[in-house]
Write a structure and sequence with these properties.
This protein has 408 residues and is of the alpha/beta class. It is built from 13 helices and 18 strands. The strands form 4 sheets. An 8-stranded parallel sheet has the order 9-8-7-6-5-2-1-10. The longest helix has 23 residues, at 177-199. Bound molecules: alpha-D-galactopyranose (GLA). Residues 45, 80-81, 126-128, 155, 210, 234 line the site of alpha-D-galactopyranose. Alpha-D-galactopyranose binds next to loops.
Length: 408
């Protein structure tokens, strides 16, 4: 906000004074302060779906602490769709009977040193057919702030029919360019409206756009106040869905940075539809992508393998690196690289072949931007590999990955 003010001395002094007395102004520009690194936590949708209730969320918070996930960096406990009840005569939203006291639940989550997230839609109905925020944006933002909400996922859902623009992604259909532009502008305004509503509560709230990437959201979401935005349709708990989504992020790296992140959807690790190697691929790829790490499994029932994948601190450190640079593909055989602070680089070498013999894949160090030998550490084997001269050849398991940290 202060950056917008003229740089004259009096303006600078006024800004400094304003920030001392109203520190929330510092976060109010959706600056990097709200999510300086990609948000980490848990979301109810992938495992619990429409059945999620108060007890499930409390159990998730308990497990986040007991398992060590909180200490590994997972902080947000996010309720997805289906918590919404009816509005009262004044238009205030209430939770449904699955969530008897939302404020008490938020207090419980906070008492564990965690943060509390919630879900709504700019449309009249959410994707699950529950009450959305359409026409009640400020009122809902005020309610969330009163409950102690720290994170809002805002899901387009029924707002698509308000936009009357189903064909935004299908230009071949007979829709005029003007109509497309109008629909896009309406969507942007709807997202910005909630952004302004959240700001005026003066509570820092991470703002997550969920509209499946429509209209190249990564190009305009930061301007509309988004801290993260879904880039694709919903993920499923299988290798095909996860790898299609993950590897299709190539090219979006220039849109991410501290405070504004591409979101290829939540983690499926621990949900049972993939092998441990394939889940290691999701964890590694999401870390290379500087993607939000929102676990989507039942945290109260994790086996040792699931814990070891979700809580690999060396991989988490790649995701959470303070430079906030999203990695990119550096070689056709799915070799990806993410620059890290201090000049180090994370490199992930993926084997995407599931139904044939695994083949050796060679990383050329110069493709990762190194000239001369490098130190190498294997982040899944947790072991130093010594010095690499000019290349490194490995055979990652089918659907699996070898992930390295390289430095000179
Ligand atoms: C959409 C979103 C999902 C989930 C559901 C809930 O499909 O993309 O992540 O929030 O809605 O209804």
């Amino acid at each position: 906000m202060c950056a917008l003010v003229s740089l004259r001395r009096t303006a600078i002094v006024l800004c400094a004074v304003a920030l001392i007395f109203f520190p929330w102004l510092a976060v109010s520009a959706q600056s990097a302060n709200v999510s300086p690194t990609p948000p980490m936590g848990w979301n109810s949708w992938n495992h619990f779906g429409e059945k999620v209730n108060d007890a499930d969320v409390r159990a998730a918070a308990d497990a986040m602490v007991a398992s060590g996930m909180r200490d590994a960096g997972y902080i947000y406990v996010n309720i997805d769709d289906t918590w919404e009840g009816k509005r009262d005569a004044q238009g205030n939203i209430h939770a449904n009977s699955k969530f008897p006291d939302m404020k008490a639940l938020a207090d419980y989550v906070h008492s564990k040193g965690l943060k509390f997230g919630i879900y709504s839609s700019p449309g009249p109905k959410t994707c699950g057919g529950y009450e959305g925020s359409y026409g009640h944006e400020q009122q809902d933002a005020n309610t969330y702030a009163k409950w102690g909400v720290d994170y809002l996922k805002y899901d387009l859902c029924s707002y698509e029919s308000i936009m009357d623009m189903w064909d935004l992604n299908h230009p071949s259909k007979p829709v005029t360019v003007m109509r497309q532009q109008k629909a896009l502008a309406m969507m942007q305004q709807a997202y910005e409206k909630m952004h302004r509503s959240l700001l005026s509560t003066h509570r820092p709230i991470v703002y997550s756009f969920c509209q499946y990437g429509i209209g190249s959201v990564w190009k305009w979401a930061p301007e509309m106040g988004g801290n993260l935005w879904r880039t694709t349709d919903d993920i499923r708990d299988n290798y095909r869905s996860m790898s299609l989504i993950g590897f299709s992020q190539a090219g979006l790296e220039k849109y991410a940075g501290p405070g504004h992140w591409n979101d290829p959807d939540m983690l499926e690790i621990g949900n049972g539809g993939m092998t441990p190697d394939q889940y290691r691929t999701q964890m590694s790829l999401w870390a290379i992508l500087a993607a939000p790490l929102l676990a989507g499994n039942d945290l109260s029932k994790m086996d040792a393998t699931t814990k070891s994948i979700l809580m690999n601190k060396e991989v988490i450190a790649v995701d959470q690196d303070k430079l906030g640079i999203q990695g990119k593909r550096i070689a056709p055989l799915q070799i990806w690289m993410k620059p890290l602070s201090g000049g180090a680089k994370a490199v992930a070498i993926f084997n995407t072949i599931l139904d044939d013999q695994a083949i050796p894949i060679t990383l050329q160090l110069e493709d990762a931007g190194f000239t001369g030998p490098v130190h190498a550490r294997d982040l899944w084997a947790h072991k130093d590999l010594g010095i690499l001269q000019s290349s490194y050849t490995v055979v990652p398991p089918p659907g699996g990955v070898v992930m390295l940290r390289l430095w000179q």
